[in-house]
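Quick log. Single chain, no ligands specified.
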Amino acid sequence: MNITPLHAKAITFLLALLMMALVRWPDLFVSFYFLCRPLIEPFSYKQFRLIGDIPLSAVLPLLLIVYAFFLTLFAKQRTFFPKNFVFLYVMLFFFTFSAFFSSNYFATISWFFKFLTGMMMFILVYNNVKNEHDFMFFIKSLVYCSLIPMAFGYYQYVTGTGHAWAGEYYKGSRIDSFLGHYNSYSEFLCLIICAALIWLSKETRKGRRILVVLALCSLVASLVLSLSRGSWISLAFGLCVASLRFHRQINMKLVLIGFTLVALVFTPVIVKRFEELSVKTEWGSKNTLAGRAQHWREIFDLVMERPLLGYGAGTAQDVMNARLKNSLAPHNDYLLLWFECGFFSMMTYLLFLSANAVYFLTRRNTLVMVNYALVTACFYFMLLSFFQNIIQNVVVFPMFLGLLGAGLKLNILAESSSFKDGRPSVVSHASVLN
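-> predicted structure:
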């Protein structure tokens, strides 16, 4: 464990004070979180501590949890029960219940608060959206929060100071920005690509549209430079599903042109990356999927020993260290949930993701491009969760749940009788619960 430098604590507390200064403006509070939290992610993977075993990077998420809880508790017309949210409460119950047989209570509590961060972001953003202007404020803030990480990612690429594995596979050319791992960075970028698509569809000013297009191009370029095959495939899958569903309402020519341009510009990088699947190394192979499949089989044998209850939230590394003599991440959120919290926790999460995907797929309103982007995000997340562990990431997971919360609320408002020209009149508390 590294000694925490004083400047890291000073930066974190300064950001916390600035967040507290924004408590009167919930939308700005959310925007500031997404602007700052990725920038201090290095404090997390460098294992800087606030005190004892408490991570320094936990300060902002804990502040978010407390703020969202008390704001929702005391403010009028805010609810703890957004649409489809019951699934997350059920999962929280399983996490809490798993503490009774956890072998590492600190890890279980840490897991609990990571998940609670995402839940509270969902509640906060859902309640913040009262009209289309509020929704677009959130969407734009996501795009803005990507600018500094993208700039730093390009710096890594130019200087060859990318991922910490520099000198092994990629000699520093695989960028991860502030996120500490190229897969986390690619997940961050893909969700913001969905937000940028929404902004582009809503922007009417020519100058702004050009800037959003440039931001979108930069996001795609950064995604390619992350060399994350899983995110490439999952995002393409999400876009294909969304395009098939909305093909009558969107300009399919533009979609095909977009796919074609990406393929033509980045073909050398993409082809080289997939050719590496057959390359042998001293670690076996660059085909990471083959190694993960073997790891999944080993984990599954352990899962079958406790299929209903699991081993306790946050205990995967401890159990695998003891039983398999390794602590490799499962690289599968569904398997991780089953392993740690039991079968019903995993099924509840799958039902939550499916319920939101179906909801956006079945809308029959004027929010075509909004739902197109949200369908893309849902199917991206559902597929990638088979190959990555995203649910514990306090940058990416809250961002995904924030997108869901904002999208659900805007659709509910759009389908209510009070929604007119993106400016709903006063909506009763009950009308936005379902």
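The CA atoms of residues 72 and 79 lie 6 Å apart.
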